[in-house]
Amino acid sequence: MQPEFDEDKVEQLRKEYFLSKSIEKSELAYDLRWPNAPKTYIVKVDASDSAIANPGFAYFRECRQLDTLKLDFCDYFGDEAIRELALGRPAHTLTNLVAFCNFILSFVKFRK
């Protein structure tokens, strides 16, 4: 049984992202939206054995310095989740993605 998510919130986040496609516009929009936010970044996430599903990956979209994402034995996400990572900021900084024993992903699509 997959957890339920607020589909409207996920869609709103998705639209906000696509409205600001370039990194510079996105940085400016972020600074205008949260001018007093501390410059603290999430660098590593170990979500092994968690129940993160495809809609949950939308929240990784704005991680500015995400370097390592470990998702061992996570059974609730698939190709759509990886697409979310590829469309957001982690595509520029993510160097280590580990998804051991996830039989839903089709790695053939992502091979060079």
UniProtKB/TrEMBL annotation:
This is Distal membrane arm assembly complex 2-like protein.
